């Protein structure tokens, strides 16, 4: 199987979509997916019982609400939400993020609901 020799240009990928809270898969790393998303507003409180979730802010500002504290991320900062920890991402301004999580991870975790969306492949 031939591997791609073309790097992923994050700015180019982000320019290809405008939907908010819609994850776009841009690469695969072993059994993990590298995804981009644009956020604005508040997501849903949810938990991923079986996996940690890495958030890396590319632009904007992201607050990850936890039940006992908030984590505020600026561009270039990342935070790993440990498995089983309830959290709720909030972005007061449009924010671009990179996510790293196991393939097939549901974006709303155990919460489900109308914001549940499968990650789309972005070519």
TrEMBL record:
Q: Which residues form the Cupin type-2 domain?
A: 41-97
Name the domain of life. Bacteria
- CDD domains with a match to the protein in the record: cupin_YdbB-like
Put simply, this protein is called: Cupin domain-containing protein
């Amino acid at each position: 199987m031939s591997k791609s020799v073309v790097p992923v240009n994050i700015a180019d990928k982000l320019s290809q979509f405008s939907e908010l809270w819609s994850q776009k898969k841009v690469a695969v790393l072993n059994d993990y997916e590298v995804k981009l998303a644009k956020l604005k507003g508040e997501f849903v409180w949810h938990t991923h019982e079986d996996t940690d979730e890495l958030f890396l802010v590319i632009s904007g500002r992201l607050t990850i609400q936890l039940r006992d504290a908030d984590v505020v991320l600026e561009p270039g900062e990342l935070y790993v939400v440990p498995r089983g920890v309830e959290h709720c991402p909030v972005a007061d301004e449009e924010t671009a993020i990179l996510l790293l999580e196991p393939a097939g991870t549901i974006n709303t975790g155990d919460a489900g609901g109308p914001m549940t969306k499968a990650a789309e492949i972005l070519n």
